[in-house]
Design a protein that fits this description.
Layout (H helix, E strand, L loop, with lengths): L6 H9 L4 H5 L3 H8 L3 H8 L8 H8 L5 H16 L6 H11 L3 H19 L1
């Protein structure tokens, strides 16, 4: 398996897996939870996420995703949604991951900043 450089390449590599259709037959939440220690661990170990190297890792870092567990979770969630022809909602996934590590004050400041940006964009 080649090391992907972006989400689209992740999809191509993951589609090659033999038992992927079985994984897709369950709910998203259950599928992602079950994959964390299986294919999720394999992704983290083999696609440079723990080693902190490669274009894929750098793309996540540029989007403020810092932990390999979050990176593999986003890959798997996006792939699951892609295979189900759903919107992957990548910004929502980024926000969820980033917010997990913030305290309440930081979350409030981040929400205020988003609101101000929306107001500025509207003008």
């Amino acid at each position: 398996m080649e090391i992907p450089k972006n989400l689209e390449e992740c999809y191509i590599e993951l589609e090659k897996l033999e038992d992927i259709n079985f994984w897709l037959e369950t709910s998203e939440k259950l599928a992602i939870a079950e994959a964390h220690h299986g294919i999720g661990q394999w992704i983290r170990n083999n696609w440079g996420l723990w080693k902190q190297e490669g274009e894929l890792y750098n793309w996540f870092k540029e989007n403020e995703i810092n932990h390999p567990d979050d990176m593999s979770g986003i890959i798997l969630t996006s792939f699951y949604r892609h295979m189900k022809t759903q919107n992957i909602r990548i910004e929502e996934q980024f926000e969820h991951s980033i917010d997990f590590y913030l305290d309440d004050k930081e979350k409030l400041l981040r929400q205020r900043k988003k609101k101000l940006n929306k107001i500025e964009d509207a003008h």
